Amino acid sequence: MRGELLSKMAKELLTVAPKIAAKPLSIVPFSAKAKVLEQLLQHLLAEQIKEGELDFLIDSWVAVSVPDLQLSFEVSFGEHFSARPVTSPKVTFSANSSDLLLVVAGKEDPDTLFFQRRLCIEGDTEFGLEVKNLLLAIDLQRLPLAVQTLLDKLAKSMQWLQTTSKTDVQMI
């Protein structure tokens, strides 16, 4: 009985938490979200920028859609990163926030999510694979320690919730 209740609560939290997070995100102007995203990418990919590894992104737009957060945007790279609302991406990555969190934290492999149909890649898939490989090469150690710790704790909590929500409890 306790396990069944815990499983139900975990399922509910996985459903409700993104809806709660989506509310404040929806009132933040896109320009503010874009500026944060552009600066974050510029910082995290500084080494790749110096090495010219982002040249394949010039004049190409990559869209990211996070349906459970009602969040979507596209980014491109020229002399610096640019973000805008989705208009004409070369490739679109789409996944729920929980799965993206696990990928970013290095707790889940994007290829696994793709084959489980939890990560969708639409458009130029060859280009999408280049982008995916670039993102996997990001050194999260470049983030402040507090952000690294938060990301790790959130990802571990997400893993626990997902595991707990799938627990089949047999009645005795």
TrEMBL record:
Record SUPFAM superfamilies: SCP-like (SSF55718)
Keyword Cell wall biogenesis/degradation on entry: no
The entry's keywords: Ubiquinone biosynthesis
HAMAP family named among the record's database cross-references: UbiT (MF_02231)
Species per Swiss-Prot/TrEMBL record: Shewanella fodinae
Function according to Swiss-Prot or TrEMBL: Required for O(2)-independent ubiquinone (coenzyme Q) biosynthesis. Likely functions as an accessory factor.
Residue span(s) of domain SCP2: 38-135
A GO biological process held by the record: ubiquinone biosynthetic process
Functional pathway: Cofactor biosynthesis; ubiquinone biosynthesis
Protein name as catalogued: Ubiquinone biosynthesis accessory factor UbiT
Organism taxonomic ancestry: Bacteria, Pseudomonadati, Pseudomonadota, Gammaproteobacteria, Alteromonadales
KW Ribosomal protein (keyword) present: no
Family: Belongs to the UbiT family.
